[in-house]
Amino acid sequence: ARGMLTYTCEQTGAPRASTVPEYDCSSGILFDNLIDGDYTFSVFAIDPAGNEDESPATWDFTVAVAPDTIIDDAVDGEGTSIANGGTTPTDNMTFTFTGTDVNDPSNTLTFRCELIGPTGPSSVPEDDCISGILFDNLIDGSYTFSVFAVDPAGNEDPSPPTRTFTVAVVPDTQILDAVDGNDDSIPPGGT
What we know:
mainly beta
């Protein structure tokens, strides 16, 4: 009879395997704390005589939990924190950021940075994209900085944070020379 069958469940995959005893294997079984990787879940039916299903039902799946990224701050060349959408009077910005991942320690994450500005997009290699990254010699205009956390399995933050800002460097005006009506040079403070 159908109601007299028991079941054995097995979950195999990267890097660990787990077998659930017959009495614990029921519909809705939960395997938690799985790390990123490929897995196979198998269910074996066993009849009252102890005969086990030789071709179990299987389900293949992949766990790929993407990390999350947070931009902690954006500081301009004067040491002023610039709010999202703000304007800096300097030509450089430093960004600090962090990442979190439920499957991996934060110190195992790498990052990919991108700065889009008046001259187009500029990507930063993962080795150079570290918290505290400085972008300097920026020309006047609008910019968007994005940073993507990447975990050891290669999963990338699908919705990275962005910080927009405008560079509006105030020109430095200098009087280099003053000349009177006789073409004589007038020193500063002179008449």
